[in-house]
Amino acid sequence: MADHNENFAPSAEHLKAQQPSGDGATKPDQPPQPTETASVSSSSRDTKREASWPSVLFYIHLNILGVYGIFVLFSHTSLITCVFTFLLTLFGILGVTAGAHRLWAHRTYEATALLRFTLMIFQTLAGQVTRNATERFGKRSALLDCSKSCLQKLNRKAHWGSIYDWVRMHRLHHEKFRTVDDPYYSDKDFMHAQVFANIRKLSPRQEQLLAAVDMSDLEADGIVMFQRRFYWAMYLVLFVLLPINAPLEYWGDTVQAAIFVAFSLRYLIVLNVAWLINSAHFVWGLDKNHKQSDSNMVFVVTKSYWPQYHYLLPFDYQSGEFGNYGSGCTTAFIRIFAAIGQATKLQTITTEAVKRGLTMAVDSGRPIVE
Ligand SMILES: [Zn+2]
């Protein structure tokens, strides 16, 4: 059985280290107060984010094809393709939640090489394309401009939505939570955080901050770096060709089902779920003004104060991406692999003191460490 630290007690330094730079109680409509470093510029020009038109066009097409996939799902799709699509979707989501988020971004547990390899394959099935990748793709026409150095260019440029790039963006999101430097910042509403933040270029300052994120732990992980290097090839084979080819080749389903359901609809679902990880705090209670709190202490942790919990104590493996706690398929997945010895050192906190601390932090607007 895995080393299951149910009563893991964080030190004050640990809590401070995990604390986002934006005050956890800062209201979204307050002027952002980014924390500056001497080397990072701060003019409005450096924080301005323009639309990434390749991203906009890409996501418009994906939405149209994916929505049409819903019609095909109920009219031209066999049951086995539905099951196949469901499994690929589930694996892709687990790759982002159990892998990129809880394992690699927050180190909430440790995993053997076998589990890390499995999660790396799953994360590739999420097929995320970062806005940087679409910008590069649009500017450089990387695939069309396939000259003699094409493979070298792709290796160097096309990291796309690899674990490494996902984690770097998510760490910046935590570090600059609720400031203009947060890549998923929105001073308006959920739609801006979920959609518009994902189709804008990063500001010059965000690019600088992103380059400064400490990624040394992932750089020491051979599986992560292997995926980063060959992401473009794995993306084409595992994410594009396999889901389209399998229904046609192995059980003779229609071309429509393969393209619009197994690929487009699945892509649309996984992408939106993955985006939701960074914008979920808008849905599951940003602050007391958005959602009424409950006097039940369990509900404090599981629902109303979830953003305060995850953004202050992100190392708890049971803290679900979508406002749940201790339940959900990702937590079950980690526990199953812990039971067979593939996941170890699961970190969590169950003390009443933390729950009381959360309540006080929210009521007083002061950080939990105080
Ligand atoms: Zn997180």
UniProtKB/TrEMBL annotation:
It is a multi-pass membrane protein. Residues 1-46 are annotated as: Disordered. GO terms for biological process: unsaturated fatty acid biosynthetic process. GO terms for cellular component: endoplasmic reticulum membrane. It is found in: Membrane. Residues 35-44 have a biased composition (Polar residues). Keywords: Fatty acid biosynthesis, Fatty acid metabolism, Lipid biosynthesis, Lipid metabolism, Membrane, Oxidoreductase, Transmembrane, Transmembrane helix. InterPro entries: Acyl-CoA_DS. Its cofactor is Fe(2+). The chain crosses the membrane at residues 56-74, 79-101, 230-248, 254-277. One of its GO terms (molecular function) is iron ion binding. It comes from the Eukaryota. The histidine box domains are involved in binding the catalytic metal ions. Belongs to the fatty acid desaturase type 1 family. This is Fatty acid desaturase domain-containing protein.
